[in-house]
Write a structure and sequence with these properties.
The longest helix is centred in the first third of the chain and has 17 residues. The protein is 45% helix and 10% strand. It contains five helices and two strands, in the order ααβαβαα. The protein has two domains: 40 residues, no CATH class; 75 residues, Rossmann fold (3-Layer(aba) Sandwich), CATH 3.40.50. Helix 3 links the parallel strand 1 and strand 2. One of its GO terms (molecular function) is hydrolase activity.
Length: 122
């Protein structure tokens, strides 16, 4: 899965199979329209980096430490663009996780989100 080492490959495979079967059942494409129009031969053709300074609410950015799709320097740069514009942004790196964080490490993701919301909405 994106070059990461899933903690439970059978569970991830089952989830993805269910999604694909559901799309097939309803006559949908395997990939979403935005994916079909934006994914180039090697990486996405578009970027929203220049729009990051427009974010005006606190944001939590999550990255799996083992993700090969989003490099640490890339997400750190994105977070810096937000904070440089004066908006609060935090980066949390989840150990032993790849790109599909909520499926690979749901407890850690939930804990990170809860902690962020608790700090942000005091």
């Amino acid at each position: 899965m994106g070059g990461s080492k899933p903690t439970d490959p059978d569970r991830l495979t089952s989830i993805l199979e269910d999604e694909i079967k559901g799309k097939y059942h309803y006559g949908e494409n395997d990939m979403d329209d935005w994916q079909l129009s934006c994914i180039g031969p090697f990486r996405l053709k578009w970027t929203l980096l220049d729009r990051l300074p427009l974010i005006k609410c606190p944001t939590l950015w999550l990255r799996g430490a083992d993700s090969v799709l989003v490099k640490q320097f890339e997400i750190a740069n994105a977070v810096k663009r937000v904070t440089d514009s004066g908006t609060k942004a935090e980066l949390e790196v989840i150990p032993n996780a790849g790109h599909i964080l909520p499926l690979e490490r749901p407890e850690q993701v939930n804990a990170a989100v809860k902690a962020f919301l608790d700090k942000t909405h005091q």
